[in-house]
Specification:
This protein has helices at 2-11, 16-30, 51-62, 67-99. It is mainly α. α1 runs antiparallel to α2.
């Protein structure tokens, strides 16, 4: 389940393959359109300050150059923010700044 995926994220922070696959699974299971999405704002593991967000933020820092990991991490953070609305979004933005990864999920600017 979700908890096993989250513990895997924390167990292998340096393994981009594991991070990408695990975050993709979490992002898919927490997507607003996912059948049986069992997450609500009360799911501590998937709260803006919870372990899934923490792992996604760490991955953004460690695997910044890996677009695949970054994409799944950003999707997961977006899903987490969608549960909690603006408050959640604000917390995640603050945490991204604190981790030095602010802007990592912004769409590439059209140069």
């Amino acid at each position: 389940g979700v908890d096993a995926l989250i513990s895997a994220l924390h167990r292998f922070p340096d393994d981009s393959w594991a991070q990408g696959h695990t975050m993709r699974a979490l992002a898919e299971s927490t997507a607003p359109t996912a059948a049986g999405r069992r997450i609500d704002a009360g799911d501590v593991a998937l709260a803006a300050e919870g372990p899934a967000a923490t792992a996604a933020l760490l991955a953004l820092g460690i695997h910044a150059a890996d677009a695949w990991v970054r994409g799944h991490a950003c999707r997961l953070l977006e899903n987490i923010a969608s549960f909690g609305g603006e408050v959640s979004r604000g917390v995640i933005q603050e945490r991204m700044s604190g981790q030095g990864v602010a802007g990592a999920c912004d769409p590439p600017s059209a140069a």
